[in-house]
Amino acid sequence: MSTTTLADAPEFRNGDSLCRPLATPSLGTVDLAIWRVDMPPGSTGKEHTLDREEVFVVETGRLAVTLNGSGFLVDAGSAVIVPPHTPFSASNGSDSEPATVIGCAPAGITATLDALTVTPPWTA
């Protein structure tokens, strides 16, 4: 059995947001990547696509999500399911409150942003 702690997790910046892996291949998983995202008030994410399904669970705050051109707000306790190859962006939906999100995707997922395809380091 392996355990990890948020306090020991490496930190990766994605714009204004802080991403910290909790369970990834580099931390001992085989099939999954799970990470936490801390989004300060007003933070914005760029539109991108993913090669496989990704799920976000909003723990605190509110996300403003655009999925395949449709925008909506997602409150704490809700999940966002992002199908593969679907244009997607998420931003903090509040100008005054932080948002905390848990992300989950298959290990080795790739993201394409501005014609560049990468494996996000918080999922490796």
Tell me briefly what this model is.
This protein has 124 residues and is mainly beta. It has strands spanning 12-14, 17-23, 32-39, 49-50, 54-60, 62-67, 70-75, 79-82, 88-92, 99-106, 111-113, 116-118.
List keywords for this structure.
124 residues; mainly beta; Jelly Rolls; six-stranded antiparallel sheet; 50% strand
Shape assignment: globular
**How far do the termini sit from each other?**
19 Å
Q: Which fold name fills CATH's third level, the topology?
A: Jelly Rolls
Helix/strand order, N-terminal first: EEEEEEEEEEEE
The CATH homologous superfamily is called Jelly Rolls
Order of strands in the sheet with the most strands? 1-2-3-10-5-8
Strand content: over 45%
Beta strand count: 12
CATH class, named Mainly Beta
Structural class: mainly beta
- Compute the number of helices: 0
Task: Please give the domain count.
Answer: 1
Q: Mind describing the biggest β-sheet? A: 6 strands, antiparallel
Quaternary structure classification: single chain
Q: Could you list the spans in which at least 5 consecutive residues all have pLDDT below 50?
A: none
The appropriate CATH architecture is Sandwich
Instruction: Kindly state the percentage of residues in helix.
Output: under 10%
Radius of gyration: 14 Å
